[in-house]
Amino acid sequence: MNPWLLAAIVAVLVIAVVIKRLIGEPVNVRDLFAAPVILTGIGVLTLVKMKDVTGTDLTWVTAGAVLGAALGALRGATVQLFDKQGVLWQRYTGRTFLAVIGSLLVMAGFGILAAKMGMHESARPIQLSLGVSFLGESLVVGRRGMTSGIPFAPERRR
Fold first, then answer.
1. pLDDT score recorded for residue 9
2. ∠ CA 67-68-72 to the nearest 5 degrees?
3. Distance between CA 22 and CA 42 in Å, rounded?
4. Does residue 22 belong to any structural domain of this protein?
5. Signed CA dihedral, 130, 136, 139, 141: sign only
6. Residue 38: Cβ within 10 Å count
7. Is residue 154 in some structural domain?
8. Which domain holds residue 92?
């Protein structure tokens, strides 16, 4: 697939998720996990298809994925969960965006360090970084939702 087309698709997907969560949306399992799983899958596939990926690259990618998931989990702790019409809803808050800014700074520093320590810049698929970050967020939001006692929203018909 054309890298520019893939980047455009990923950008649209991320922007759509953020806008929906800024406005507020019902929480259901498919919406919570579909985007992170798709983005992570695209990132892993991109990494697998790369030529000349070294052990150093894989070590830094793995560490970056763990850090990204942890920062996503931190962001998930800032998401407002509430009952609306008898089902669980979520909404991003100002603290969520502060967590996003902090995460971007931490990940930028991590990327600079990884490059200085020998990681090839091309071995860092952005889709993987975004996917694991959203996955960390979704796991925390899902867990918080389960313990809230508020039922998840039913799956919407597509």
1. 82
2. 115
3. 25
4. yes
5. negative
6. 16
7. no
8. 3-148
Read off the amino acid at residue 98: L
pLDDT over threshold 90, residue 3: no
Contacts of 8 (CB under 8 A, 6+ apart): none
Q: Answer whether 126's CB lies under 8 Å from 2's CB.
A: no
CB 136 within 8 A of CB 10: no
SS3 150: coil
Give the closest residue to 64 by CA, choosing from 7, 11, 133.
133
Hey, what are 7's tokens?
């980047």
Residue 99 belongs to a domain: yes
pTM above 0.85, yes or no: yes
What is the distance in angstroms between the CA of the first residue and the CA of the last residue of the chain?
Answer: 26
- Given this model, what pLDDT does residue 139 score? 98
Torsion of CA 99, 152, 41, 69, to 10 degrees: 30
pLDDT tens digits for range 46-100: 899 988 899 999 999 999 999 999 999 999 999 999 999 999 999 999 999 999 9
Q: When comparing pLDDT for 107 and 158, which is higher?
A: 107
- The mean of the pLDDT values for the chain is 92
Q: Around 157, how many Cα atoms within 13 Å sit in the side-chain half-sphere?
A: 0
Structurally, the chain folds into a number of domains equal to 1
